[in-house]
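REVIEWER CHECKLIST
Item 1: Sequence provided? yes
Item 2: Single chain? yes
Item 3: Sequence as submitted:
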Amino acid sequence: MITLHRRRRLANMTGLALSGVSMALGLAALLWILFTLFWNGLSAFSVDFFLRSTPAPGTEGGGLANAIVGSLMMVGVATFISTPIGILAGIYLAEFGARSKFASATRFVTDIMLSAPSIVIGLFVYAVAVATVRHFSGWSGSLALSLIAIPVVVRTTENMLALVPGSLREAAFALGAPRWKVSLAVTLRAVRGGVLTGVLLAVARIIGETAPLLFTALNNQFFNADMGRPMANLPVVIYNFAMSPYENWQQLAWGGAALIALIVLGINVLARMAFRDRLRA
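Item 4: Structure as written out by the authors:
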């Protein structure tokens, strides 16, 4: 009996030690990546970095103003498209068609889109929205990003609504509220923090996508606020500048990568705060 107890303690200590070593290795790699990114990227931040457009090949100076504005516009339009579609689809799956065949097919398609490589979605949008009109545009880039964000919002909304107790719905029905009003004014309001978290996480995912924008929005060296034309964006500019032989372009690529990392970090912090407030409520 004592031998068995010692074996269990030894196995437990061995498992804890291996888990601790694995966690330490993962954190060390993460800290190394972040240190390298911010060490090289933060030094590129300046007034010109945020106010000037990308420089021509072989020229000094310049910034990423056109890429920053282009990314914000396309991500904003994609969020505007994906948020209502994703939330309404999640409400339908959780409240109205939970066990229907159409809901099962929708969940299956959503899971496929969640696991599909972003380049596949980019090629699909290229064939549908770019090749047919024979020119790249910011609208096509927003469409590709929205197709990536919608499944995230759908699954998050459905999962959050599934956590609402049935007694809350029954109490609303007992007061004579119709089903659509119960879904929008009772259950959705009860999990608004979790739904907001899903929207923020979807934005964090699409803001750094490169492959879909290569096939849809392409790029633009000049400042452009017309969504019907090719638009500069941070992921594609980072990809192009990092592969270039020009030192100032490489420095701008580091700065753009650091900026995206800071934005994603801020979005995740906001998502955590929103989820924490939901738990307190």
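Item 5: Key structural point noted by reviewer: The chain is about 75% helix and 0% strand.
Item 6: Recommendation: ____
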